[in-house]
Amino acid sequence: MPVIYVPDIHITANPVMPTARTLATAIFVTNPKTHEALLLQPGTEVNDTTIAEQITHPDAWAPEPPRQPRRAKAEAP
Prior knowledge:
Elements lengths: L2 E4 L3 E2 L9 E2 L4 E4 L6 E4 L4 E2 L2 H4 L25
Parallel strand pairs: 1-5, 2-6
Antiparallel strand pairs: 3-6, 4-5
């Protein structure tokens, strides 16, 4: 099986995934269209749900920044 090294790419194909997630470690995944093995490097942003679904180990993902609490609307005097 050929392995394609993919340095510093941003995989974007499926707009269903709400936000990009960043990889913390190198991961092998299968390209769903060509069925080739892909090596994604740490720091790669993954937007495609078909790729993200293949990455099941939680430690493969970089920690997400903490969410900021919603601010209440300013009340009119």
